[in-house]
Design brief:
Number of strands: 0
Strand content: under 5%
Radius of gyration: 14 Å
Structural class: mainly alpha
Order of helices and strands: HHH
Shape: globular
Helix content: 40-55%
Largest sheet: none
Length: 69
C-alpha cells in the first residue's frame, strides 16, 4: 500500500532498493529516532511500519517470492 499509494505516485520512487531517498531504521531505534530525523530536517518524512510476523515471512517463503525492502 505504501509503495502503490505514496512512494510511487506521489514521490516517484520506483525501486525502493536503489533509490537514494530511501533509508531503513531498524525497529530497535523506534519511532523516536524517526521523529528526530524529521525534526532535525535531515529527512522530510518518515513512515513507521508494523514488523513482519513469522507467519508472513513463512508465507512469502512458501510462495517462493521475495519481500519488498
Amino acid at each position: 500500500v505504501l509503495t502503490e499509494r505514496v512512494l510511487d505516485p506521489l514521490l516517484g520512487i520506483k525501486d525502493q532498493r536503489s533509490d537514494p531517498r530511501i533509508d531503513f531504521v531498524g525497529g530497535v531505534k523506534g519511532p523516536d529516532k524517526l521523529a528526530a530525523m524529521v525534526d532535525s530536517g535531515e529527512w522530510a518524512v518518515a513512515f513507521w511500519l508494523s514488523p513482519t510476523t513469522v507467519e508472513q515471512l513463512m508465507a512469502v517463503s512458501d510462495a517462493d517470492t521475495v519481500m519488498p525492502p
